[in-house]
């Protein structure tokens, strides 16, 4: 909460946009709307989670790269790829080609998820190590590689990227645990996006956190009802 001690709501949510052009504001708003729709469809176990999600992630790939959140940018590239994979998987496992049944993850899947988490931490850390080289238009002239340039938001970005990678994979597998990862990651992203001057996106992550909790309860209830039948 230390951010709010130093800045008022105007500084957090309005002032950063004074320097943005109309296109940036429209893109961020559109990305937030489609992202929210995607989470809504996910709660309903509706396959439209993927086409709406793809639109949102492609928008955020552009936005987050420009704001220097390479880890979060990478996760949205991964989201796009996994959305295509999940779209195919959900369509294949759906009787009406719209809705799917959900289950809990197996021990084997948790093992794979752990490996994915560790590999993601390593990959995103490497990307940030080379960030000065990337920012210098892929030139080593006057560039010092390392992690010295990272602020707390960047380190949180590394962590949340790994969380979201696992969550996305579990969602494609129609596993109830995916919501646990979304809840944790979305909550962490609220102050991170405020710090980066993305007020609209920070509000989106607040909404995502609430929706993820509802999604977890809904999927858990659906599984119990299916098991009784």
From TrEMBL:
Instruction: Please name the InterPro entries in this protein's record.
Output: NMN_transpt_PnuC
Protein's membrane topology:
Multi-pass membrane protein
* Pfam families recorded: NMN_transporter
Which GO CC terms are listed, alphabetically? plasma membrane
Q: List where the protein spans the membrane.
A: 20-40, 47-63, 69-90, 110-130, 152-172, 179-196, 202-219
- Where, subcellularly, is it found? Cell membrane
UniProt superkingdom: Bacteria
Question: Which molecular-function annotation in GO is an example for this chain?
Answer: nicotinamide riboside transmembrane transporter activity
The record's listing under NCBIfam families reads: NMN_trans_PnuC
In which family does this protein belong, per the annotation?
Answer: Belongs to the nicotinamide ribonucleoside (NR) uptake permease (TC 4.B.1) family.
What is the protein name stated in its UniProt record?
Nicotinamide riboside transporter PnuC
Q: Give the organism the record lists.
A: Chryseobacterium ureilyticum
